[in-house]
Structures are given as C-alpha cells and as structure tokens.
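Students often ask why inverse folding is considered easier than folding. One informal answer: many sequences map to the same fold, so there is more than one right answer. In these notes we will look at a single instance of the problem. The structure comes first.
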C-alpha cells in the first residue's frame, strides 16, 4: 500500500492494550508492562472486560468505553476475537493496529478464513493500517515506545530492523543489548496482512533517525512494492538482508512458521542485487555489515592491500581474500620505492606488506599513508598481532590519524583479546571497522565490494520494453481476482505458465498422459 497512517503505529499519543492482563505468563501482561516500563510518555489504556484495573492502571471493559480514541491499538486476545475487535477499533476512529495474536494463516485453512475476516473488516475503514498478525510487536526507542512482548527494550540507535521471525527478534535484542547496539525502529511483521516490508522500507528510509536497514526475510508478498522501496533508498541508506528458506526443507519450515512460501532462492538473489540490497548469510554479520556500509564509502574495486606486523596472518588473510574472489592489489613501483625507504631491508617487498614484528606506531601509520595513495589499491586492511615490542593502543591511534582523510576504505584486524580491546575502541570512535580476526575483516571488505557492485547495477537503466509488446491487463486482473476470491495462495503450473506466456516469456508446454504408451506417443509430438 503506502506509508499512509503508519505514523499512527510508530508515533502514537494514545495506546490501547486490548487483552491487558495481570497474569505474568500472558502476552497481554508483558505488552502492558513493557509499554509502561519503557517510559512511554503518551496515554495508555488497558482493555479488559473483567478488571477495573490492570497492573495498577485503570482498565476499560471494551473499546467503546475508552474516553478517547487511541491512535494505536495493540491486540493480544485469541484469534477468533480479532475480527470483531478490528471493527470496534475502526468505529472508534483508531487507525493504527498491531495484532500480536497468533492462529491465522500460519495454522492452515481455518486460520486463513479468520485472516480474511480481519482483512474484510479493515477494508470498511479507509486509512486503517494493520501490522501483523502473528508478530512480536514494535519498539521505537526514540519515543520510549515498546509495544511488544520482548524481554527487554533496546537502546536508541540508527538501525531500522524488520523481521518476519518474532523469535529471532528476541535473540537479536538480547545480543544487541550485550554489544551496545541501538535501533531507530525494531519491528516484527508477522504475516503481513497489510503493512509490508516495502511499506516499512519506505517509512524507515524517509526517517532521518535511520541510517541503515536490516531485513530478516522468509518470503516477500508484494514484490513490486518491495523492489521499488528498496531501489529508492539503497543509494543513500544501506539495506542488509538475511534471507532464510534457501533450500526446499527450510522453505517448508518457513511456510509452517508464517504461512508464506519462501520462494526460489535464486530469484531472491537476483532481486537483491537489482535493488541494491547487500545479502548476508550469517546472522553474526547483520550488525557488522549494516554499520560498515553506513560508515564506509564503497570501494572502487576489489583490490585490497594488506599491512601486517606478522607473516602468518598475512598469508591467512590472502587465503580468505582469494577464496571470496577478492584480489590482492599490485603495488606500483613508486609505492615500492617509498616502502623500501621506510621499512627495514628484510620487509616482505610485496603485498601483504609486512612491516615486521618490532614495528612502532609511526612505522605502521606511515606505511598506511603510502599504500593509500597507490592508484592500484582500492582499500587497505591493517593487521596487528600483539607482541612484546608492540603497542596496540598507540598503533590504533596512529593508524586512525593516517586514515582520517583517506578517500578509500580502511579496515583493521587487531588480533587478540584484552590487550587489543582499547585499540578496537579507538577504531570504533574513529569510524574504522575493526575485527578480531583477519577472516572477519576480509568478509567485511567483500561486503563493501558487493555493495558497490549492487549500487552500479542499481544505476543501470533497464532495457526498454519492446514497442510491439501488448498485454491484456484487464483479462489478467480478472483471472487474479477470481483466484483470490477462491482463497488460493499458490498458482498452479498451468496458470503460472499462462501468465508468463502473456508477458511473452517462453515456457515449456506440459502434456498429460494416462499411460506409459501414451507418454511415449506424446513425447514424439
């Protein structure tokens, strides 16, 4: 649809918790506790027909009893009650709904009917927006809004997080708190009956407080809308996606989880590249990648120069780089001459540049300055192993100054634990991505390379549609409407191929046979 009225969900002044409870094990208890405990400055209305007060706050028996129409209603009641509650919200003038309740299309045919009833009620009220159902809820740290049943509230930050898995949300929240990572928005979308990922990308992309967006995707229901939103904002705000359901078995698990088919992975891969989205394959890369892309300019190519104080890590890094299809930069003769003048005679005389184990901070820094100026180098990775004669903290400060005005990405791998911790903090403050292993640093660099390539694809102009191409859109729309009316969610092979043929896309022609002999005969046609 659009971002219309999403502010009712993400910037409410009055919030009703329908199904608020005093039972500590209930969702309604946790949602109300989080909403009040997070410091939300608006008005909170607990709705419970059996209580005069819930958690010490005056309660109301139903929505019509509320003194004012809430901007946002958070529904935590059993699924069969939801359609009627949606109707009551609409009649009261509430235009923002978060339906946490589960028991809809993810459970099968009966759930799909119930979800359709919710959709039918929503359509009666122009402008009503629904997030969910079957979701964890939403968190907006900037306004102290925690309308979820998560176990904790995250810190304020600049990452917009959108997930189809509520359980993953809780794990990510716990990890982010431990790592000190904050969010501008944190959203569990559930079944996406109305508000889609495309809507949220549009909304977060327009928000000044959001610098990058992370997506956990199992399926995409509104492909055109998703692609348009991603292409519009990927140029200025990096979008990082983790796509689950890559294989047949995991796709089936995704269908049982959210009630949506995961789709062919190759299609998603191509779509992400075309939309400028950087794809990750490990959950641990989520925040590193989002932060990296938001803070570092994309490199012009994949040629990496490695500067290290130990030979072994240089070899490890080269292996990791080549394995991921990166390239070792070919250092120019002029750069080699400058390094010969700077470094001891026994340095490596090539890339990786081994500045030797006794390298003081100024030797490291000067080598970084020289290599950054080389026109054959697209980025620099600096590696330090803590040895008796090294000072990881002072070296980090020196490298940070040397890289301060660089127009190329600089990454650091400070190998170790306690001894290098302060140096890592210095890099973080200077905006230089730092890692505790060279392999992680290389993985990060290749994300930068991939993102740069995706941005190039994003700026390419698609080929024009053939002038002779014609399409009976009205007929196709009629077929789709009939399928939707009948409640079908997956197109048959014949219908799918008929649609593809309508767009002049070649398809194979299936022919039916009722016996082996008939199959042989059909095969010769």
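Output (designed amino acids):
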């Amino acid at each position: 649809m659009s971002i219309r009225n999403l502010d009712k969900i993400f910037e409410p002044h009055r919030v009703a918790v329908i199904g608020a409870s005093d039972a500590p094990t209930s969702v309604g208890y946790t949602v109300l506790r989080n909403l009040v405990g997070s410091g939300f400055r608006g008005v909170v209305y607990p709705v419970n027909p059996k209580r005069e007060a819930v958690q010490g706050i005056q309660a109301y028996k139903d929505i019509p009893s509320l003194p004012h129409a809430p901007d946002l209603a958070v529904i935590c009641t059993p699924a069969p009650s939801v359609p009627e509650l949606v109707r009551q919200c609409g009649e009261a003038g509430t235009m923002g709904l978060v339906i946490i309740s589960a028991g809809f299309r993810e459970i099968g045919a009966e759930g799909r009917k119930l979800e359709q009833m919710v959709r039918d009620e929503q359509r009666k009220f122009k402008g009503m927006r629904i997030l969910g159902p079957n979701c964890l809820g939403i968190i907006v740290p900037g306004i102290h809004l925690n309308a979820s049943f998560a176990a904790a509230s995250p810190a304020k930050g600049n990452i917009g997080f959108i997930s189809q898995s509520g359980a993953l949300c809780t794990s990510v929240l716990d990890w982010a708190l431990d790592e000190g990572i904050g969010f501008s928005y944190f959203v569990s979308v559930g079944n996406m009956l109305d508000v889609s990922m495309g809507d949220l990308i549009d909304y977060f992309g327009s928000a000044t407080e959001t610098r990058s967006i992370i997506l956990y995707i199992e399926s995409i229901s509104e492909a055109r809308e998703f692609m348009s939103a991603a292409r519009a904002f990927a140029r200025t705000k990096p979008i990082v996606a983790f796509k689950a359901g890559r294989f047949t078995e995991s796709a089936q698990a995704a269908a049982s989880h959210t009630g949506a088919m995961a789709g062919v992975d190759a299609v998603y891969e191509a779509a992400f590249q075309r939309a400028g989205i950087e794809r990750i394959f490990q959950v641990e890369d989520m925040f590193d990648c989002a932060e990296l892309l938001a803070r570092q300019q994309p490199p012009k190519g994949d040629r990496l120069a490695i500067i290290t104080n130990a030979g072994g890590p240089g070899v490890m890094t080269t292996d990791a780089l080549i394995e991921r299809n990166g390239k070792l930069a070919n250092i120019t003769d002029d750069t080699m001459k400058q390094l010969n003048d700077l470094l001891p005679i026994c340095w490596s005389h090539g890339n990786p540049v081994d500045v030797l184990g006794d390298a003081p901070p100024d030797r490291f820094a000067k080598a970084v300055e020289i290599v950054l100026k080389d026109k054959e180098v697209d980025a620099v990775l600096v590696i330090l192993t803590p040895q008796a004669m090294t000072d990881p903290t002072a070296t980090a400060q020196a490298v940070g100054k040397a890289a301060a005005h660089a127009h190329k990405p600089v990454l650091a791998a400070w190998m170790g634990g306690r001894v290098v911790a302060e140096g890592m903090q210095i890099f973080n403050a200077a905006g230089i991505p730092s890692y505790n292993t060279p392999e992680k640093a290389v993985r990060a660099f290749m994300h930068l390379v991939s993102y740069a390539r995706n941005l190039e694809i994003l700026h390419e102009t698609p080929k024009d549609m053939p002038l002779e191409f014609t399409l009976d859109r009205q007929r196709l729309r009629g077929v789709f409407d009939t399928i939707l009316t009948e409640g079908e969610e997956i197109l048959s092979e014949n219908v799918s191929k008929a649609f593809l043929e309508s767009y002049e896309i070649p398809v194979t022609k299936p022919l039916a046979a009722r016996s082996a002999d008939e199959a042989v005969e059909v095969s010769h046609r």
